Amino acid sequence: MGRRKKTDEKSAKQIRGPGRKAKKQGAPTFPKELLPADSNEKKKLSSRGKQRARKRLEKDQLKEANKKNSKLATRVTKRQSDGESNEDEEEEQQETNGFTDENQKWLKPKKKKELFDDEGEGEGEELMDEEVPYDDEFDDMESTTDDDEDNDVDDEPKLDIEKKSKKLREKQRQAKERSEQELLTNIQQQEKIQFPSGQEVTKDAPQADLQLIMHRIREVINVLNDFKTKREPNRSRKDYLDLLRQDLCNYYSYNDFLMNKLLDLFPLAEIIDFLEANEVQRPVTIRTNTLKTRRRDLAQALINRGVNVDPLDKWTKVGLVIYNSQVPIGATPEYLSGHYMLQGASSFLPVMALAPQPNERVLDMCAAPGGKASYIGALMRNSGILVANDANKDRAKAIIANTHRLGLTNTIVTNLDGRHFSEHMGGFDRCLVDAPCSGTGVISKDQAVKNSKDEKDIQRCFTAQRQILLNAIDA
Ligand SMILES: C[S@@+](CC[C@H](N)C(=O)[O-])C[C@H]1O[C@@H](n2cnc3c(N)ncnc32)[C@H](O)[C@@H]1O
């Protein structure tokens, strides 16, 4: 960068120098059409864009010619002071002067970069400066240096180029060597996975470097995906699966039981995606209560309060995503007056699948605190009958509070055990069962689930869910 700046400064100086010299050179140096560049013509020229452009062209040509002259002169002076013979240089200067003058007719103003490139052929230092930005781009550099070698006439800059080119080729060779070495190392690692001994697996793994564990996880998955060809002959599939499970438990902090269940549930290609997704916080989303407002109006009202909000996605016309907020989203005047419900985006979907219609009889069997039930009520446009039930009395109270806040008038809240609900009521058109669950689907909200679940919890959930579902079918 420093060198580049130097070049700019230098060229800036040159731009000023040649301007003054140009006047000394006089008119005969330039073709007729370019002569009216003096100050008395300036007013006339500046009045027309076309003439201004011509003037600019002329200036550029002058700058370029004089730049060459002044640089060459500097070099001659330098060499003289170094005690070198200056005969050749004088010849060269004459040649350059001649070139500049004769070529005024065909010389066209070029872009700055092109000008630099041309000059580079005769100016070793300039060329070096131009090449600096390519230091890391080996391909570009290679082609640049090759071109330069072919075209150069002057010996001095050629030497510079050669030096630079040699350096870069060496760099390039070293980089290639390194990457080949890395590749080899990876292949070797892939070929031989380090299996800790039975006791070591649990004892040593927590201290191990997480990066190494993730590396091994990927390698083991790679082997399991092509077990026949990639396995070690003395290792069984179970060996690899055990190692994978243990590494996943250590890396993501799950207990053995839950990780086993997840490995049963997800294909190898998806397990990492699932575990990674559980590490990411889900966005805060809200559902517009269409019984009271429109999404556009709600968004505007929230924006006015300093909430950064956007439509959730194409698949929903009522969802909004909150990026950040200067006010608590659960306590705004809009919230308190029931214009929206704080609700995860995924919880819209079961209601959309249920597709309740106005004037139907609908049952939400496990409804507290009423997120889905209130969406059902809104889709029914407060018509028909919605029964929102929950076995937990305190939680059932939350349904009542939300029902009032959101302005639902077609809703009856009940506090019954879903396993026996049909003994009290029946004849529903549609029924939603959002049964109590293990919580393994919301690990991103509650990381404690990773270690707090065991076989009994799952069994308990499973039995209750089946009983509630069967009763809902009866209802
Ligand atoms: C996942 S939550 C429901 C969330 C609710 N659908 C919503 O969208 O806001 C499960 C609910 O089932 C209730 N529940 C548990 N056992 C039940 C049972 N036997 N009968 C009815 N509800 C039950 C719990 O009290 C809990 O509120």
Structure description:
Pfam families: Methyltr_RsmB-F, RsmF-B_ferredox. There is one protein chain. With 475 residues, the chain is α/β, with parallel strands linked by helices. It has four domains: 2-169, no CATH class; 198-277, no CATH class; 282-343, 2-Layer Sandwich (Alpha-Beta Plaits), CATH 3.30.70; 351-475, Vaccinia Virus protein VP39 (Rossmann fold). It contains 21 helices and eight strands. It has a four-stranded antiparallel sheet, with helices on one face. β6, α19 and β7 (411-414) form a beta-alpha-beta unit. The longest helix has 37 residues, at 155-191. S-adenosylmethionine is lined by residues 347, 365-372, 390-392, 395, 417-419, 434, 436, 464, 468.
